[in-house]
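Re: that chain you flagged

S.,

Sorry for the slow reply, it's been a week of failed gels. I finally had a moment to sit down with the sequence you sent. For the record, here it is as I used it:
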Amino acid sequence: MQKYFVSPPKDCRITPVLRYDMRMNVSDEDLALAAAGGDGAAYQLLLTRVYDRLFGLCFRLTGSRTEAEDLTQDICLALPGKLSGYRAQAKVTTWLYRVAVNAATDRRRRKASYTRATQGWGAWEVDRVQTAQEATAGARWLYRTMALLPTHLHDTLALVLDDVTHAEAAEILGVSEGTISWRVAEAKKKLREIKEREDA
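Prediction finished late last night. Pasting the C-alpha coordinates below so you have them in one place:
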Protein backbone atom coordinates (compact mmCIF):
# COMPACT_ATOMS: atom_id res chain seq x y z
CA MET A 1 0.00 0.00 0.00
CA GLN A 2 1.46 3.32 -1.04
CA LYS A 3 1.82 6.00 1.63
CA TYR A 4 2.71 9.59 1.17
CA PHE A 5 2.56 12.94 2.92
CA VAL A 6 0.31 15.82 2.06
CA SER A 7 1.85 19.20 2.77
CA PRO A 8 -0.38 21.88 4.32
CA PRO A 9 -0.26 25.50 3.13
CA LYS A 10 3.03 27.28 3.91
CA ASP A 11 1.47 29.62 6.47
CA CYS A 12 -0.18 26.78 8.39
CA ARG A 13 1.34 25.40 11.59
CA ILE A 14 0.07 21.86 11.42
CA THR A 15 1.97 18.66 10.91
CA PRO A 16 1.59 16.98 7.51
CA VAL A 17 -1.17 14.43 7.22
CA LEU A 18 -0.12 10.85 6.57
CA ARG A 19 -2.58 9.13 4.27
CA TYR A 20 -2.78 5.47 3.27
CA ASP A 21 -4.39 5.47 -0.14
CA MET A 22 -7.16 7.80 1.16
CA ARG A 23 -8.50 5.09 3.48
CA MET A 24 -6.86 6.27 6.69
CA ASN A 25 -9.10 8.10 9.12
CA VAL A 26 -8.13 11.75 8.61
CA SER A 27 -10.03 14.63 10.21
CA ASP A 28 -12.09 16.97 8.07
CA GLU A 29 -9.89 19.83 9.25
CA ASP A 30 -6.71 18.09 8.04
CA LEU A 31 -8.39 17.27 4.73
CA ALA A 32 -9.42 20.91 4.30
CA LEU A 33 -5.87 22.09 4.96
CA ALA A 34 -4.49 19.53 2.52
CA ALA A 35 -7.09 20.53 -0.09
CA ALA A 36 -6.20 24.19 0.45
CA GLY A 37 -2.63 23.21 -0.38
CA GLY A 38 -3.73 21.76 -3.71
CA ASP A 39 -4.33 18.09 -2.86
CA GLY A 40 -7.15 17.07 -5.20
CA ALA A 41 -7.69 13.68 -3.55
CA ALA A 42 -8.11 15.34 -0.15
CA TYR A 43 -10.63 17.75 -1.68
CA GLN A 44 -12.62 14.87 -3.19
CA LEU A 45 -12.69 12.96 0.10
CA LEU A 46 -13.69 16.09 2.03
CA LEU A 47 -16.47 16.81 -0.45
CA THR A 48 -17.68 13.21 -0.19
CA ARG A 49 -17.88 13.54 3.59
CA VAL A 50 -19.71 16.87 3.74
CA TYR A 51 -21.84 16.88 0.57
CA ASP A 52 -25.04 15.40 2.02
CA ARG A 53 -25.06 17.75 5.02
CA LEU A 54 -24.25 20.70 2.77
CA PHE A 55 -27.10 19.80 0.42
CA GLY A 56 -29.47 19.37 3.39
CA LEU A 57 -28.63 22.83 4.67
CA CYS A 58 -29.01 24.31 1.18
CA PHE A 59 -32.43 22.67 0.91
CA ARG A 60 -33.49 24.19 4.22
CA LEU A 61 -32.11 27.58 3.18
CA THR A 62 -33.87 27.63 -0.20
CA GLY A 63 -36.98 25.49 0.35
CA SER A 64 -36.59 24.00 -3.12
CA ARG A 65 -34.78 20.89 -4.28
CA THR A 66 -33.85 22.48 -7.61
CA GLU A 67 -32.51 25.64 -5.99
CA ALA A 68 -30.72 23.57 -3.35
CA GLU A 69 -29.01 21.52 -6.06
CA ASP A 70 -27.96 24.69 -7.88
CA LEU A 71 -26.73 26.36 -4.69
CA THR A 72 -24.81 23.25 -3.61
CA GLN A 73 -23.14 23.02 -7.02
CA ASP A 74 -22.25 26.73 -6.93
CA ILE A 75 -20.63 26.23 -3.52
CA CYS A 76 -18.74 23.12 -4.67
CA LEU A 77 -17.41 24.99 -7.69
CA ALA A 78 -16.26 27.93 -5.56
CA LEU A 79 -14.95 25.80 -2.70
CA PRO A 80 -11.41 25.16 -3.99
CA GLY A 81 -10.78 28.90 -4.08
CA LYS A 82 -12.48 29.51 -0.75
CA LEU A 83 -10.47 26.76 0.97
CA SER A 84 -7.38 28.92 0.66
CA GLY A 85 -8.94 31.08 3.38
CA TYR A 86 -9.57 28.16 5.76
CA ARG A 87 -7.25 28.25 8.78
CA ALA A 88 -8.56 25.43 11.02
CA GLN A 89 -9.64 27.91 13.69
CA ALA A 90 -13.16 26.51 13.36
CA LYS A 91 -14.54 23.09 12.51
CA VAL A 92 -14.82 22.52 8.78
CA THR A 93 -18.59 22.12 9.04
CA THR A 94 -18.93 25.42 10.90
CA TRP A 95 -16.79 27.18 8.30
CA LEU A 96 -18.63 25.45 5.43
CA TYR A 97 -22.04 26.37 6.85
CA ARG A 98 -20.91 30.00 6.97
CA VAL A 99 -19.93 29.71 3.28
CA ALA A 100 -23.35 28.17 2.52
CA VAL A 101 -25.33 30.84 4.38
CA ASN A 102 -23.35 33.60 2.64
CA ALA A 103 -23.88 31.93 -0.75
CA ALA A 104 -27.62 31.60 -0.09
CA THR A 105 -27.81 35.26 0.91
CA ASP A 106 -25.96 36.30 -2.25
CA ARG A 107 -28.22 34.10 -4.34
CA ARG A 108 -31.35 35.65 -2.81
CA ARG A 109 -30.07 39.10 -3.62
CA ARG A 110 -29.46 38.10 -7.24
CA LYS A 111 -32.79 36.37 -7.70
CA ALA A 112 -35.85 38.52 -7.40
CA SER A 113 -37.87 35.34 -7.87
CA TYR A 114 -36.93 34.20 -4.36
CA THR A 115 -39.85 36.09 -2.84
CA ARG A 116 -42.26 33.16 -2.99
CA ALA A 117 -44.79 34.66 -0.61
CA THR A 118 -45.75 37.34 -3.15
CA GLN A 119 -45.32 35.26 -6.29
CA GLY A 120 -47.25 32.13 -5.43
CA TRP A 121 -46.21 28.59 -4.76
CA GLY A 122 -46.07 27.02 -8.22
CA ALA A 123 -42.41 25.99 -8.01
CA TRP A 124 -42.86 24.84 -4.43
CA GLU A 125 -45.81 22.63 -5.40
CA VAL A 126 -43.79 20.95 -8.16
CA ASP A 127 -40.97 20.33 -5.71
CA ARG A 128 -43.37 19.12 -3.01
CA VAL A 129 -44.79 16.50 -5.36
CA GLN A 130 -41.27 15.28 -6.24
CA THR A 131 -40.25 14.96 -2.59
CA ALA A 132 -43.56 13.73 -1.15
CA GLN A 133 -42.18 10.23 -0.59
CA GLU A 134 -39.10 11.58 1.20
CA ALA A 135 -40.71 13.79 3.81
CA THR A 136 -43.57 13.61 6.26
CA ALA A 137 -46.49 15.98 6.04
CA GLY A 138 -45.15 17.83 9.09
CA ALA A 139 -41.73 18.33 7.54
CA ARG A 140 -43.27 19.56 4.28
CA TRP A 141 -45.38 22.04 6.21
CA LEU A 142 -42.32 23.23 8.12
CA TYR A 143 -40.20 23.84 5.01
CA ARG A 144 -43.07 25.61 3.26
CA THR A 145 -43.85 27.75 6.28
CA MET A 146 -40.20 28.55 7.02
CA ALA A 147 -40.10 30.39 3.69
CA LEU A 148 -42.61 32.86 5.15
CA LEU A 149 -40.24 33.81 7.98
CA PRO A 150 -37.93 36.81 7.77
CA THR A 151 -34.54 35.80 6.37
CA HIS A 152 -32.64 36.13 9.66
CA LEU A 153 -35.12 33.83 11.45
CA HIS A 154 -35.30 31.44 8.49
CA ASP A 155 -31.53 31.00 8.23
CA THR A 156 -31.12 30.58 12.00
CA LEU A 157 -33.84 27.94 12.15
CA ALA A 158 -32.38 26.12 9.12
CA LEU A 159 -29.04 25.80 10.92
CA VAL A 160 -30.60 24.64 14.20
CA LEU A 161 -32.69 22.05 12.34
CA ASP A 162 -29.43 20.74 10.90
CA ASP A 163 -28.24 20.00 14.48
CA VAL A 164 -25.91 22.99 14.62
CA THR A 165 -25.50 24.16 18.23
CA HIS A 166 -26.49 27.68 19.19
CA ALA A 167 -22.80 28.49 19.71
CA GLU A 168 -21.91 27.22 16.23
CA ALA A 169 -24.87 29.04 14.66
CA ALA A 170 -23.75 32.25 16.38
CA GLU A 171 -20.28 31.83 14.88
CA ILE A 172 -21.66 31.03 11.43
CA LEU A 173 -24.05 33.99 11.37
CA GLY A 174 -21.74 36.41 13.16
CA VAL A 175 -24.10 37.19 16.05
CA SER A 176 -24.18 36.38 19.77
CA GLU A 177 -25.42 33.08 21.14
CA GLY A 178 -28.19 34.97 22.95
CA THR A 179 -29.35 36.37 19.61
CA ILE A 180 -29.54 32.84 18.21
CA SER A 181 -31.66 31.71 21.18
CA TRP A 182 -33.97 34.70 20.69
CA ARG A 183 -34.26 34.05 16.95
CA VAL A 184 -35.15 30.38 17.51
CA ALA A 185 -37.81 31.33 20.07
CA GLU A 186 -39.17 34.04 17.77
CA ALA A 187 -39.24 31.65 14.78
CA LYS A 188 -41.13 29.03 16.83
CA LYS A 189 -43.60 31.70 17.97
CA LYS A 190 -44.25 32.81 14.39
CA LEU A 191 -44.63 29.20 13.19
CA ARG A 192 -47.16 28.56 15.98
CA GLU A 193 -49.10 31.69 14.96
CA ILE A 194 -49.18 30.54 11.33
CA LYS A 195 -50.35 27.07 12.36
CA GLU A 196 -53.10 28.52 14.58
CA ARG A 197 -54.33 30.71 11.70
CA GLU A 198 -54.35 27.71 9.35
CA ASP A 199 -56.24 25.56 11.87
CA ALA A 200 -58.82 28.25 12.68
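What I noticed first: Residues 40-62 form the longest helix (23 residues).

Talk soon,
D.
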